[in-house]
């Protein structure tokens, strides 16, 4: 930067250091210049925007949120009609994004773990096939995959009249996937509550078992007991209600199905594409996590006389999870962010709804700002969780 | 005597289940009871899936037929590709001028292939790149040597995809390094500016930046000035990728032990010299694998410009498929495109693996 020597001015003022040689002052000036540049640029853009908006007479602000949206949204978790406000339409969009992200994250974790473990399988065929899956899925853009699955739904699957019926009660056609669900019955509500109660009980049981083990050194099979209870108790409730087996079967009425639960082709294609794409990355993370455990750890655990299940539970998992969880969360966040590609295949997620809103109202700045704010909120809450987790999981060193 | 030796030799041979094909099968597919079950299940599933797929793709398929002939067959209609390959690859580039983007792309790929050897990374290579990029620009834009001018709005298809990804990567890399250094800086103002930038960009999807570039950015400029749409998308991609590169590079910088800085300082190196000569060469080397991951996603993410209606290779394919003549052939066209992307990505990731091995100086 300022490496050129100043002309030696008689050498009389040896003590006075020129300001460009004083690290402190230089840092101050440098920072001031940086802030000034950024601030000036911001002001310049802001004043331009103001002038442009005034010229095109676009009103700024979020008043439009209370106006009538007057567009339909194909699928919604809450009641919505075209007469509702933009605010409600956007809420529907957020919920749709959360829906696909939530289901996607669960499926991705399961599929990714299975493939990651298969990648390490000693079975040559299984390991090769997983490697092939990972390579193919990772190297094709997710948007192309979404288009592909959407095209499969639209072109390869027949109309509802000739719907594929692979097993009883499940139909595949270009209107999506339609399957039978059990008829609403009190027994199901009760079973659900019992399941939740068992899981909460399992958490307390786990705490009790850990304290007991610390106190007297005897372990308790928490997982097995909880799983057994979670299966047995709801089943008992079901029997007590007289084993209701009525199903709500989808039926062809005219040009579409009624009854059952139907999943739209847009949602299915989005979910399928996101899950397959992300699970390839998750599989690599899981594989790296498992491989990060040194062979000596397992040998030491065996030498201590732990059973294979105990080795997995007490030695391998706690250590590999520490390696796996941080990149895993960032993949989950990626999945959530990639769900914004829904706009390309017509699933009405938050970005798609905002896009429609921008087109109708012309409020581009507010719209883009809202998209950014919502996704920033998602990622900030994730990083809060990550910080908490890292603190909890950090290696306690000397 | 010899008989005895022959018997001995026979006894010394390994059992037949341990060698050859049987041995391999025994070791790799049927070594335990559950692996045997798994193998059998896999073979059954593959046996059910592969023959129909093969029949669809190769037996019942047509390759050069007309669009009408496609509607009568059960198999794949690969004809969609040879019939539309010009538009898929070159998009709206004027008819008869296709040799120009083709030559430019060939030049780019040839240079990339030539630059793969580290022994060729010298200043002469930099000059070669500068000259070639100018030539490519001239080829694409035209205007001299009797080549008609082709506006950037007509640049589409594969050249656009390659251009967006190439400049996206090349410009984002130094920007990302600068951001990473800024984030590790001791100056609070610089540090917080970099942190805000990186975290904000990483928190939002690329789509929102592309939206910003396409619908919001025109509002930022003073009246009468407009910036080309392709360039705006290019800047959005660069800014987005740089934030991710910055995080990866920061990981590398953090992995440098303090002793490296202290040693450099004791040698009398300035801050810039320390970074340039000591820290960055080591830090960048250890983050090659994640960096390539980021660059790969940048390449794949250029396909997102479809959403703001730029005609990259995915969009030209979609336009082809929206032609009523070729509806119903989406699967085939997308498979072709997937293959195209796969080849590029696979080449990049295998190159990174090789580079990683080459640069590995540990012993």
Task: Describe the protein's architecture and organization.
The complex is a heterodimer of chains A (398) and B (363). Chain A has 398 residues and is mainly alpha-helical. Chain A has a domain of 195 residues: MetI-like (MetI-like fold, Orthogonal Bundle). In chain A, 65% of the residues lie in helices and 5% in strands. In chain A, strands 1-2-7 form a three-stranded antiparallel beta sheet. In chain A, strands 3-4 form a two-stranded antiparallel sheet. In chain A, strand 1 and strand 2 form a beta hairpin. Chain A is globular and about 80 Å long. Chain A starts with 22 loop residues before the first helix and ends in a 5-residue tail after the last helix. The N terminus of chain A is likely disordered. With 363 residues, chain B is an all-alpha fold. Chain B has three domains: 69 residues, no CATH class; 56 residues; 152 residues, MetI-like fold (Orthogonal Bundle). Chain B contains 16 helices and no strands. In chain B, helix 8 runs antiparallel to helix 9 and helix 10 packs across helix 11. The longest helix of chain B is centred in the last third of the chain and has 30 residues. Chains A and B meet through helix 1, helix 3, helix 4, helix 11 and helix 12 of A and helix 3, helix 9, helix 10, helix 14 and helix 15 of B.
